[in-house]
Design brief:
577 residues; alpha/beta; 2-enoyl-CoA Hydratase, Chain A, domain 1; 7-stranded mixed β-sheet; 23 helices; 20 strands; 39% helix; 18% strand
């Protein structure tokens, strides 16, 4: 029973796709991924080099330089929320708020995965904009779900006041950050704060609940800054006088240690992290190394067509993500429109769920085929059972979405798809294992929900540059909108040519608007997805996220493979040893 029947999957690229089609797919994706790199650089620049120079003139480091010096040399950093507020303008400021004025990322510090939350001091002195609190809370939630040490690099001048009504009130307003600080503390998640400069109002509360608080000589933490006190009480003071390290380290006890400068503070944080327990990932690997797939991950840029109407082999995607291109498919004979199974990722076990594309067999009509990328009764039941088994066994789950939705119609209702779907939704809503979702291409309708879309609380949701998140496609929605004006073949059923032109224009406008709304940057701007990634980055992301799932000990049940429920499920569904 302890044997995990991993078998090779995938074929060399030349056997999957001819050179011409592969090159065409790569070319289509290359333009989109080039745009991604350009936009990342735009966000990373903050308000530009002039503002970074102002920071350096004060003897401080720009925020992204702080992060780079904090993390382990030569390791990758995985940023989330890069495109929050992307392209938006705000009252009183034409330069916008790149990244919502805060950097949030996963990174290794002293060999341990941590969540880093750092105010961007090149964007309005690290102010909190609309969606900044939500972005910070999202990162804190990720840290809580994975029990990762959380590091705050605080340099925050408080709310961006012209837009305070959009960031101060509400269930996820700025004050909810402090509740998340408290929940992390109550759950035993280590929190370490470094205060580098302005730390006003909410910015002053953010580090206080941390286990260790460091301050540089330029830093201060205040409920109200000197300018406000001068206006209210006519007292001439500086903010350092009110809440600098002399006050908070030696008098109030709100901070623990004062240090001379940024570099010293970052070194102190690294020493604190080094005192924490090391990762349990090596223990759970059981001596298995992290081995690259046999089929190169870089080939994903040509394996997946950018055109969502074009099919591809989902097994070839898995072959370029799993260690050694080895995979154990569970219940392959049931609901073949979805593949469920287990593989090692970075040497650690993870469950995969991915939608097939093209046509698959129809078990109710053996001589017929039906479209894949749709959930039917068998696949819904299979995915629900697989999801429950992975949760029971403590195996993190990776959902690779390319889905058009649920089956519809008289037969689907007769078969009780609503009930089967409710079972799957219940399962994914109550799972305790970390779940990670990737929107490969289509993420449509209730299928997006059923495949652990963001409303079902995956720890992280990633989107590719060709992801399309919507209730339905633009053309379909245009037909639904103007249904009363169309005949059974969806042609405009009006004799008047002027009326026909109006309907045509209206349908075209609806379709174009929906197509714009499906842009992954719209989702990322609104925090409806966590990060947009290149295809060739997916393998690295999954290795990192799976390892994070195994880093901490004792907060969830990770079972020995000898006692996996998946073995029982495999046996009961006719699996062979």
């Amino acid at each position: 029973m302890a044997h995990i029947p991993l078998v090779p999957i995938g074929r060399p690229r030349a056997q999957v796709l001819d050179d011409r089609a592969y090159a065409a797919h790569r070319e289509a994706l290359s333009a989109l991924e080039g745009q991604l790199e350009t936009r990342r650089a735009e966000v990373h620049a903050g308000w530009g080099e002039d503002y970074a120079a102002r920071v350096r003139a004060k003897g401080k480091l720009p925020t992204r330089e702080r992060v780079a010096r904090l993390v382990d040399p030569g390791t990758s950093l995985y940023e989330v929320g890069t495109f929050v507020n992307f392209g938006e303008s705000f009252t009183g400021e034409k330069r916008g708020s790149p990244g919502a004025g805060v950097v949030t990322c996963f990174a290794r510090v002293e060999g341990r995965w941590c969540v880093i939350i750092a105010n961007d001091n090149t964007v309005a002195s690290g102010s909190w904009w609309p969606r900044t609190p939500e972005k910070i809370q999202r990162a804190q939630t990720m840290a809580l779900r994975l029990r990762l040490p959380t590091i705050y690099l605080v340099d925050c001048s408080g709310l961006f006041l012209p837009e305070q009504s959009r960031s101060f009130p509400g269930a996820r307003g700025a004050g909810h950050i402090f509740k998340m600080n408290s929940l992390l503390s109550a759950s035993g998640v280590p929190q370490i704060a470094g205060v580098f400069g302005d730390c006003i109002a909410g910015g002053g509360y953010m580090p206080i609940i941390s286990d260790r608080v460091y301050m540089t000589e330029q830093a201060y933490m205040v409920i109200a800054g000197a300018a406000l006190i001068k206006g209210a009480k006519s007292e001439k003071l500086t903010s350092l006088d009110i809440g600098g390290p002399e006050v908070h380290v030696h008098q109030s006890g709100c901070a623990d240690v004062r240090v001379p400068d940024d570099e010293t503070l970052l070194a102190c944080i690294r020493r604190e992290v080094a005192r924490l327990p090391s990762s349990a990932a090596g223990y759970y690997r059981g001596g298995a190394g992290a081995l690259e797939p046999v089929q190169p991950p870089r080939e994903l840029t040509g394996i997946l067509p950018a055109d969502h109407r074009e099919a591809y082999d989902a097994r070839e995607v898995l072959a370029r993500l799993c260690d050694q291109s080895l995979f154990w498919e569970v219940m392959p004979e049931t609901g073949e429109e979805v593949i469920c199974g287990v593989a090692r990722v970075g040497g650690l076990y993870a469950g995969f769920v991915i939608n097939r594309q093209g046509l698959v067999g129809d078990p109710d009509h053996p001589d017929d085929q039906r479209p894949a990328a749709i959930l039917y009764r068998g696949s819904i039941a299979k995915v629900a059972a697989f999801s429950r088994a992975c949760n029971d066994d403590g195996i993190p789950l990776i959902w690779l979405q390319d889905i058009s939705g649920f089956d519809i119609g008289k037969e689907a209702e007769r078969q009780g798809l609503l009930g089967y779907g409710s079972s799957l939704i219940y399962t994914n809503s109550t799972n305790q294992v970390p779940m990670f979702t990737v929107l490969l291409r289509k993420a449509s309708g209730a299928g997006y929900y059923a495949m652990a879309g963001l409303p079902y609380d995956p720890v992280v949701q990633l989107s590719t540059t060709i992801a399309r998140l919507s209730v339905m496609e633009g053309r379909t929605l245009a037909i639904a909108t103007y249904n009363t004006k169309l005949d059974d073949d969806f042609q405009i059923a009006l004799p008047d040519p002027d009326e026909r032109k109006k309907i045509e224009a209206g349908m075209r406008q609806v379709e174009e608007r929906i197509e714009r709304d499906m842009d992954p940057y719209v989702s990322a701007r609104q925090l409806d997805t966590d990060e947009i990634v290149r295809m060739d980055e997916l393998r690295g992301w999954l290795c990192a996220l799976v390892e994070m799932s195994y880093q901490s000990i004792g907060h969830r049940r990770i079972k020995s493979p000898r006692i996996w429920s998946l073995h029982d499920l495999h046996e009961l569904t006719g699996g062979v040893r």
